[in-house]
Write a structure and sequence with these properties.
The complex is a heterodimer. Chain A is mostly helical. Chain A contains eight helices and no strands. Chain B has a domain of about 180 residues: P-loop containing nucleotide triphosphate hydrolases (Rossmann fold). The chains are: A mainly alpha, B alpha/beta.
Chain lengths: ~250, ~280
């Protein structure tokens, strides 16, 4: 039942974050700083992963459809798998791996070095000071990162489809356009924001709950990336079930 | 020796009434860290809380600033019960308190000057950036670190970190300053320098100081009053002269720097609470 107790403690943490922010402005200047940091940190690795996911989607789509003579459907395959599902999850995984782990480890180190106690003693609510800017920052950048992941995945797929597999580029893009609707992009953006909220709250929670010392910092960092990734993937399944489950 | 009373007749800055605190242990039991502690720390004086490691000194300090809540009893700071007061009230009290943490607890992402300016930037919106800077430079001079405003905290030595922590603790001109092991991890010369700084701060600021320490020499240098904790209980509390002349066996052992714990059957054991 320890997982149930952990969920209860996490819910309490989320409530405390909400309470710390009730009727007050976020710390001035820090939201943009955090948004910039999260975005810049995650962007290179996100683009790299998106490129290679895109290339492989094209290759595997081609291998699946070519024996049936349906190689023109590669564009549709890339759009459905890449845009609807993989791009938001890739963005979430990379942000969890880069920004999430940094959030958890920074807060855990601050806890070890009594800097969080120092904030309390200086009459500054640590949840407001440390969690709020990160939460708002990640909500601001996740939609942009998700869109970038989408376009990078499609561009890399298109490149492999035309340059390596010899498919018609216009056909490819027509199938992509025909398979993706505005509501898919809106769903991706909402997924991105939700994943961002999950990553930030889970990572900050792991940092705040860490035991003191280097081992505690390591455990908090590890827990942050594992729990937030698993939660995002599960959430992605639920959202896709609601939107596309029939 | 009895609990001290206030010097000016007002509410004492710190008053603990029958405070008890225990923590669960990994074996399923509990460890009593504070056991029915009652204590008053008078205004304008330096009270040193001494005792061997693990006797509840830092836990006591965390109760005073409201970072921990007692299982029973009351911790009143400026008359406010830190355990039951609403958060806003607790924060109002904390604005009147400065604290030096063991390792300084400086923020790594900020420069030395920005660390010191942090509480001013948060709570003194009436000050301009120039006034804040002047005030920070003034306290840097007070702690004998002039010209270090822009130095990264990673480039500070252990003694300098303590001084910067002290500068941050006093920059808002608090009425109460708490020191958590100000000499820990320092060489004897730097330790003496920190003690001298505490004495000089007290003379300049005329505020109430509480010093948590297990360093006897340092304590005798800075304290007006001494409270000794052992196994979560107050075993001595009074003026420095009263405590140093105490015939309590644990006090004698501690002041004699003989930290060997009494054997079962030793009369000193009868004065100690059970830990379990």
């Amino acid at each position: 039942m320890s997982w149930l107790a952990s969920i209860g403690r996490f819910a309490g943490f989320c409530f405390a974050v909400a309470r710390a922010n009730a009727f007050r402005m976020p710390p001035p200047g820090r939201t943009i700083e955090e948004a910039y940091r999260i975005g810049v940190q995650s962007l290179p690795v996100l683009l790299t992963i998106s490129v290679f996911v895109g290339t492989n989607l094209s290759l595997q789509g081609y291998n699946a459809f070519q024996p049936m003579g349906g190689q023109r459907l590669v564009g549709m395959f890339v759009a459905l798998a890449g845009v609807r599902e993989l791009a938001p999850i890739i963005a979430a995984a990379m942000v969890a791996a880069k920004a999430g782990t940094e959030m958890a480890s920074q807060i855990a180190v601050m806890r070890t070095r009594e800097q969080i106690d120092a904030l309390e003693v200086m009459a500054v609510n640590p949840l407001w000071w440390l969690v709020t800017p990160r939460l708002l920052g990640i909500i601001l950048v996740m939609p942009a990162l998700t869109i970038l992941a989408i376009f990078t995945t499609i561009a890399a797929s298109w490149l492999v489809a035309t340059a390596q597999l010899g498919l018609n580029g216009t056909d490819f893009l027509d199938y992509v356009r025909g398979s993706i609707h505005a509501r898919d992009l809106v769903a991706c953006e909402i997924k991105g924001m939700l994943f961002g909220v999950v990553i930030c709250l889970v990572s900050c929670y792991c940092g705040f709950q860490s035991s003191k010392g280097p081992e505690g910092v390591g455990q908090a960092t590890n827990a942050a990336v594992v729990v937030s990734s698993v939660t995002c993937v599960s959430l992605n399944f639920l959202i896709s079930q609601v939107l596309y489950g029939g | 020796m009895t609990d001290s009373t206030t010097l000016d007749g007002g509410a004492p800055p710190i008053e603990l009434r029958h405070v008890s605190k225990q923590f669960p242990t990994s074996g399923g039991g509990s460890l009593v860290v504070l056991d029915d502690v009652s204590l008053t720390m008078p205004r304008g004086q330096t009270t040193a809380v001494i005792g061997p490691s693990g006797t509840g000194k830092s836990v006591l300090l965390k109760h005073i600033v409201g970072l921990l809540r007692p299982d029973s009893g009351e911790v009143r700071v400026f008359g406010v019960d830190m355990a039951t007061a609403p958060e806003k009230r607790v924060y109002e009290v904390r604005k009147r308190v400065g604290m030096l943490f063991q390792d300084g607890a400086l923020f790594d992402s900020l420069s030395t000057g920005d660390n010191i300016a942090f509480p001013l930037a948060r709570h003194r919106s009436d000050l301009t950036a120039k006034e804040r800077r002047e005030r920070v430079e003034h306290v840097l001079e007070m702690v004998e670190l002039p010209g270090l405003y822009n130095r990264p905290t990673s480039a500070l030595s252990g003694g300098q970190r303590k001084r910067v922590g002290l500068a941050r603790a006093i920059v808002t001109e608090p009425e109460l300053v708490l020191f958590d092991e100000p000499n820990s991890g320092l060489d004897p010369m730097t330790s003496d320098a920190i003690d001298a700084l505490i004495v000089s701060m007290k003379e300049k600021l005329h505020v109430t100081f509480v010093v948590i320490s297990h360093d006897i020499v340092g304590t005798l240098n800075v304290a007006d009053r001494i409270c000794m904790l052992y196994a979560g209980k107050v075993v001595a509390n009074g003026t420095t002269a009263e405590v140093t002349h105490s015939d309590h066996p644990m006090v004698r052992r501690f002041l004699g720097r003989n930290l060997v714990l009494p054997e079962p059957g030793d009369p000193a054991m009868a004065t100690l609470p059970h830990i379990g």
